[in-house]
Design brief:
- The protein is mainly alpha-helical.
- It has helices spanning 22-34, 53-58.
- The longest helix has 13 residues, at 22-34.
Length: 76
């Protein structure tokens, strides 16, 4: 199941099944270069899932280094 159209990132190192497998991705650069093309990749890390390891770790304590990855606001 994909939450939020795939923008609810749980793992930045995984490939969604709909796009293939990691083995497919591993072959991609060589196959593209054989055709004389270049590969441009984009990584957007300004949002993650609440299930992502960074977020889970950030909630462990107020002085956790991952806590600075997120903006925390007291809503009370």
């Amino acid at each position: 199941m994909v939450d939020d159209n795939g923008y609810d990132i749980r793992d930045y190192k995984a490939v969604m099944d709909v796009f293939g497998a990691m083995e497919d991705f591993d072959r991609l650069p060589a196959e593209i270069h054989q055709k004389g093309m270049k590969l441009v990749m984009d990584l957007v890390v300004n949002h993650t899932s609440d299930e992502h390891a960074w977020f889970v770790e950030s909630r462990r304590s107020p002085d956790n280094p991952y806590r600075d990855y997120y903006i925390w606001k007291d809503t009370t």
